Amino acid sequence: MIYNTLAKYYDTLVRDEEATRAYVDWIVSFEPESPVLELACGSGEITHALSALGYDMSALDLSARMIEKAKQKDLDKKISFTVQDMLDLSDLGTFKTIFCVCDSFNYVLEKEDVKALFKEAASHLETGGLFCFDTHSLDRLDEFEGEYNETGQFEDGVQYQWSIMSEDEYIYQDFAFYRPDGTVLEEHHMQRVYDPEFLIQELEEYFDVISVKTDFDQEGISEGEKYFFAARKKRGIQS
Question: In a 3-state reduction of DSSP, which class is residue 232?
């Protein structure tokens, strides 16, 4: 399971308060209503930020260790956290807002599963409910044609190497953790980058697309790092 080791160091590597605020501002700009469900919530930074604003939050992630990290931040026990695959929401109720951010969508590796995810989201939203997600842009494939490497050391003495490279439609992220006792733990992550026109086409089966942006504030699809989609569930789609 990916994130078995990375979960412990995830916030140290990628936590970014400015990015969290930007994500929250983007979601809030569409006037979301509670209850809210976050898919693939990771360590729960955005979950907690929205909870602090008064939203009734539920969140899930496939990694039990990431959910453990997220729960540790929930001092008031206000948030419902679940270890669960976002492709199967069958045991959950209905929400007014569902979102999936921080490139988590890119872990969906098959086009059939993209369709299944959109269908699941729609079936667990009220009519007119809000669905938001972001993805890697196509430009990221070009960016990582040349391998990116980062190395460092954590406070507990564990050293790490983080490499990112792309091939065809995929981005591969490899982590190696070198413990002081000489043991090495590795994690290999694979993400798929989709053409935004395909995503819009599939979205429109269940949703009315209300906003497509690049990097939070550029209207439409343009050069950048991420695409941002917001949509509302169509009338006539069953919950």
Answer: strand
Strand 36-38 relative to strand 57-61: parallel, antiparallel, unpaired? parallel
* 140-192 CATH: 2.20.25.110
Each residue's pLDDT expressed in tens, for the chain with a length of 239 residues: 578 899 999 999 999 999 999 999 999 999 999 999 999 999 999 999 999 999 999 999 999 999 999 999 998 899 999 999 999 999 999 999 999 999 999 999 999 999 999 999 999 999 999 999 999 999 999 999 999 999 999 999 999 999 999 999 999 999 999 999 999 999 999 999 999 999 999 999 999 999 999 999 999 999 999 999 999 999 887 77
> CA-to-CA distance for 195 and 140, rounded, in angstroms?
12
Chosen CATH of 6-137+194-233 out of 3.60.15.10, 3.40.50.150, 2.40.30.10, 3.20.20.220? 3.40.50.150
Determine contact, residues 211/232, Cβ cutoff 8 Å.
no
Q: Indicate the helix (H) or strand (E) that contains 211.
A: strand 207-214
- Model-level pTM? 0.96
- Kindly state the DSSP code that residue 66 receives in the 8-state scheme: H
Bridge partners (DSSP) listed for residue 81: 59
Surface-to-core class of residue 66, CB atoms within 10 Å of its CB (0-12 exposed, 13-18 middle, 19+ buried): buried
